[in-house]
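Please, does this match?
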Amino acid sequence: MILVTGATGFLGAELVKQLAEQGLAVRCTRRSNSATPQTLLPYSHLITWVEADICDIFALENAMEGVTQVYHCAAWVSFKQADKDPMISTNVNGTANVVNACIDAGARLVHVSSIAAVGTAKTGELITEKHFIEETPVNNIYAISKLESEMEVWRGIAEGLDAVVVNPSVIIGASAGTDGSGQIFETIRKGISFYSGGAMGFVDVADVARCMIALMNTNITAERYILNSENWYYKDLFTTIATRFGIKPPSREAKPWLLELAWRGAALVGKLTGKDPSLDKISAQSGSQVLNYDNSKIKQAIGIEFKPLSKTIDEVVGALKG
């Protein structure tokens, strides 16, 4: 039996869809207030839903009955300082529970970490799986939670767990809608004048799921893999998205000092209105960083050819246009 945590999320739903398309029965965890993704309704005969919070050890143990493979996608994603303690507690303790349950059941685990848990390289070099964060990213609470969660998996591996870790770059796809990475597209669609000078890696959600399934079905263990299709400068990304929407692309670069003013201004507005700020400190700072990721290790391991990012952009824009 296969168990997928976080199956109602963006990546989790795509993963379950691909497993079901192969005719595989899948058990999926969800919280009591989570709705079944529309994309999974056609596969209801293959999917068993169980209400199990990963922080509930007893519910998780029940969900693990008869399970031999676990895909751990569940995670709380936030960049708000107010969410720091509960998010780290949920992500880290929840992952520890999943790891322990896998060890007890003798199940193989594919854990979804993040490039936020990968270190940086010297200027001009590609970032690889060998780069580790040297200093705890105090201000980036999401990175802290993913780093410490990944450490729980490595702890489990040291205790005999059969596991592989994947570190996806920014995951995009039509099924995101306007949430998560979909906010990038929606923001550009509404019209923006500035672009930031940094660069980042991006990958299609379907490719991430494909990599996870392929890795699960290998004998590879105790390895981490960066999942990244292409590295794009934000200027090129914003221009391409705007062009696809048929609107004027941003023409002015937002220098670091301007991004600094922008996130501080957004934070002030957020405090006055009670709404989440439109730009946070971490996003503003990362917007000026050039972070290029190497995908050669995963290609060598499973022979995957990633979908061109331009094709994914077309699909996302097409979905948002309706």
Observations:
- The first strand starts at residue 2 and ends at 5.
